[in-house]
């Protein structure tokens, strides 16, 4: 499968939970900024916990859609690993940027 | 080229209750294989086991080569589940592009979709969504396709069109179909299995369907 098509499919899956996930990320960054980076550890684990909740939610309410991606050659594992790694990467990147601006 | 899909040695239990135990099923290119069975007999489970999304002891072979996770290889097997599986928010244009299919060929068979190219899948009726799903699964390049209740939500005219479409497409792949509208399945299938008491029975005459307690013919 062409790489571009694969990325587009994973992006489509990511869009199904990007709004709550990014909202949580922005709130965490704001709190970290306000607390002068003293609560980074707590909010990092809070972010991971919310991703766990999002995972459970999508598995409960959108699991039927996995067949679309599987019929196109993208497994559940690939969908979750790529989107969760990217989401955590964005969180860490924004924390680093916030630290540099502070 | 002719391909062969075989499934046997399947053992499936739920909470100690044996659901599937004595299974043999064969599907070949150029043939439509029907699978009938009463509710709860394990038809959908059997399809999921063949597809690899439900784990249990099994032997699923494509051209004599064992494959545990067929879902990883869409060129081997595609699966139409009994529910709508296309994510909401996708247009027909995007869906046909994902499956690398030509929309105009679809329009020729189903002219009611002529103006729907840019429509969202969730804006279609239940029957229309089902038609799109059936078409992309059957038409995509793969050796086999399994269809779980394809006729649900379709009106009689759509069912007849789908039957003609499946008969046309069977020359390219092997099709495994299960549906409670069994007369439509009987109309088009070349081989018929009936699932009863966890076992598959190769049905050779319509009387057997009655004998095995599935339906009155």
Q: How would you describe this protein?
A:
- The complex is a heterodimer of chains A (102) and B (217).
- Chain A has 102 residues and is mainly alpha-helical.
- Chain A starts with a helix and ends with a helix.
- Chain A has one domain.
- Chain A has helices at residues 3-15, 18-34, 40-61, 66-71, 76-101.
- In chain A, α1 (3-15) packs across α5 (76-101) and α3 runs antiparallel to α5 (76-101).
- Chain A is elongated and about 45 Å long.
- Chain B is an alpha/beta fold and 217 residues long.
- Chain B is built from 7 helices and 11 strands.
- In chain B, the strands form 2 sheets. Chain B has a 6-stranded mixed β-sheet, sandwiched between helices. In chain B, strands 1, 2, 3, 5 and 6 form a 5-stranded antiparallel β-sheet that branches.
- In chain B, α4 packs parallel to α5.
- Chain A binds chain B through residues 5, 9, 12-13, 15-16, 62, 64-68, 70-73, 75, and chain B through 53, 71-74, 78-79, 81, 83-87, 89-90, 98-99, 136-137, 140.
In short:
Chain A is mainly α and 102 residues long. Chain A has helices spanning 3-15, 18-34, 40-61, 66-71, 76-101. Chain A has one domain.
Uncertain regions spanning at least 5 consecutive residues of chain A: none
> In terms of per-residue confidence, which ranges of chain B show pLDDT below 50 for 5 or more consecutive residues?
none
The string of secondary-structure elements of chain B, in order, is: EEEEHEEEHHHEHEHEEH
Strand order of the largest sheet of chain B: 7-8-9-4-10-11
Number of domains of chain A: 1
Helix/strand class of chain A: mainly alpha
Largest sheet of chain A: none
